[in-house]
Design goal:
Structural class: alpha+beta
Oligomer: single chain
Order of helices and strands: HEHEEEEEHHEHHHH
Helix content: 40-55%
Strand order of the largest sheet: 3-4-5-6-7
Radius of gyration: 23 Å
Length: 197
């Protein structure tokens, strides 16, 4: 991507739902900054309970600090959809805690799960916090061309079937849109000159 654009410092924006730790790791290893809003699936906040965001991870000690200021140590490894998950819990930490009723409905302990590469998820979340207007920018720059291309195609469905053929059809529409935009911005002669170089 950097080679095609001739830039090393690249930031990409994606819609909510593309928050995959493995993809984030690949993006970060390529030196690209990713900004993606996180999907919030926990119902704890609505119930008045603490969510995972209320627990602070300490990398050096490999513990989570709970809202009561106590350390929740690493306990065991499990898997979820083939991805390793580290579980943090402690009966001794939760036993007798005055904030337990705000922490969990479990009679025993509060369990926190962490992906092996969750540091990449946290890095993306921090990038999103640092640029809160990112999604407004994305909608302005991406939704407009997408809407224009759909309008060009009319309200009819795509003319092709199967993923391979649909990708080709949509790619041709995007290519035509990009050429038209470049002609509007650079002029026909400017575009021809740029393509020659």
């Amino acid at each position: 991507m950097q080679q095609a654009l001739g830039k090393q410092d690249i930031t990409i924006l994606a819609d909510r739902g593309y928050d995959d730790s493995t993809s984030f790791k690949t993006v970060h290893q390529a030196g690209v900054t990713a900004i993606v809003p996180k999907i919030r699936t926990s119902a704890n906040r609505k119930k008045g309970l603490f969510t995972k965001e209320d627990f602070v991870y300490n990398k050096e000690k490999d513990v989570y600090e709970c809202p009561a200021g106590k350390d929740i140590p690493f306990s065991f490894v499990s898997t979820d959809k083939g991805k390793p998950l580290r579980a943090y819990m402690s009966v001794m930490t939760c036993k007798g805690c005055t904030m337990k009723s705000r922490c969990t409905t479990s009679p025993a302990v509060r369990r926190i799960r962490r992906l092996d590469d969750e540091e990449h998820v946290e890095r993306v979340a921090q990038a999103y916090k640092n640029m809160p207007n990112a999604m407004i920018l994305r909608h302005r720059s991406v939704e407009h061309p997408f809407g224009t291309i759909k309008q060009w195609a009319g309200t009819q469905q795509l003319l092709t079937r199967t993923l391979k053929h649909v990708k080709t059809e949509v790619s041709l529409q995007v290519l035509a849109y990009n050429f038209k935009r470049m002609m509007n911005i650079m002029g026909v002669s400017g575009l021809i000159s740029a393509m020659k170089t």
